[in-house]
Amino acid sequence: MSAAQPELPGRMLVSPGDADERVVRRWGGRALGLLARHAPDAASLAAAVAPAGVDGAAVTAVHGELLRRLRSAPASEVWFDLADVPVGDPAGPAAAGVAAARLTGLAVRGEVAPVGLGLRLGGTGAGGTAVGATLGATLGVALEALVATAERGAGAPEVELGALPEGLAVVVPHPGAALGAAATTALERSHGLPPGWLQERAEPSARSAPVLSGAQEADASAVRGVWAEHARLVLEARAAGLEPGVDRHPAHLVARHLADLVLAAG
Fold it and tell me: What CA–CA distance (Å, rounded) separates 58 from 70?
């Protein structure tokens, strides 16, 4: 690979219902399953993404590395999506917090590759301070669950053991929707976290391809269409100097890694 093109890995956006410590491995397995079903070799994958302008010879050259990534390190970031969690419902934020701690615990034990972790929130929008307080409360529930799971004693079952991540991204729709340093500092102090542990980030502005339904995953045309569209969007974002949109479905990981590998090989 060219030294001028560093590895630019996938960033998964996971719904609360899919939030557990095995989600990275599960998504990687699903991505590989879609390839096995709808593009079992380099030539068929090249044909699938040809509408995105991806060169077939380049796909063949990086195909083995694509499979390796999906098996060993499908993503380097996982964001749990709390943007649409109903107000006052603690189940989603708590599940995300537990999953973040347990996923870190697996990485500490060498069972999975380490990943950066984040929580995606909605914006403060027109509600201003009131809505911001609600988002802060949602984040607080997630942090409480994360810290409690990370502090489980040695007597807990291994599957329940967690660890504290080195930090946590707090993802908002745009910079103007941020909670602000005062709010994040207060949350850090109230949960015994070091200063700067929470890092607010704006969500990438680039678009992602549509999310496939379960029925669509069985449709070769639908899956190949999503691969081609997501690869095209990744390539366009890179060309414009932007962060690509998030990967909202395992099929997106195939296209994200493929597009980045082709760029790196070029």
Answer: 18
Q: What angle do CA 92, 95, 101 make, to 5 degrees?
A: 140
In the numeric block, the tokens 């410590």 are attached to 21
Return d(Cα 105, Cα 107) in angstroms, integer: 5
69's CB contacts (< 8 A; 6+ apart) are 9, 257, 261
10 Å CB burial of residue 114 (0-12, 13-18, 19+) is: middle
Average predicted confidence (pLDDT) for the chain = 89
Question: Strands 168-172, 198-202: parallel, antiparallel or unpaired by DSSP?
Answer: parallel
Handedness of CA 140, 153, 73, 114 (dihedral sign): positive
Q: From edge to edge, which strands make up the β-sheet containing 198-202?
A: 11-14, 77-81, 116-120, 168-172, 198-202
38 in Cβ contact with 217 (< 8 Å):
no
Of 170, 195, 175, which is closest to residue 185 (Cα–Cα)? 195
249: left (phi over 0), alpha (psi -120 to 50) or beta: beta
Where does 51-144 show beta strands of DSSP type E?
Answer: 77-81, 116-120
The Cβ-side half-sphere exposure at 159, using a 13 Å CA radius, reads 2
Q: DSSP string of 134-176? A: HHHHHHHHHHHHHHHHHT--TTS-GGG-----S-EEEEESSGG
Q: What is the pLDDT of residues 68-86, one digit of tens each?
A: 999 999 998 999 999 888 8
**Bridge partner list, 14:** 80
pLDDT at 132 over 70: no
Query: Is the full-model pTM beyond 0.70?
Result: yes
Query: Which residues make Cβ contacts (< 8 Å) with residue 15, sequence separation at least 6?
Result: 81
Of all residues in the chain, what percent are helix, strand and coil, respectively (each to 5)?
55, 10, 35
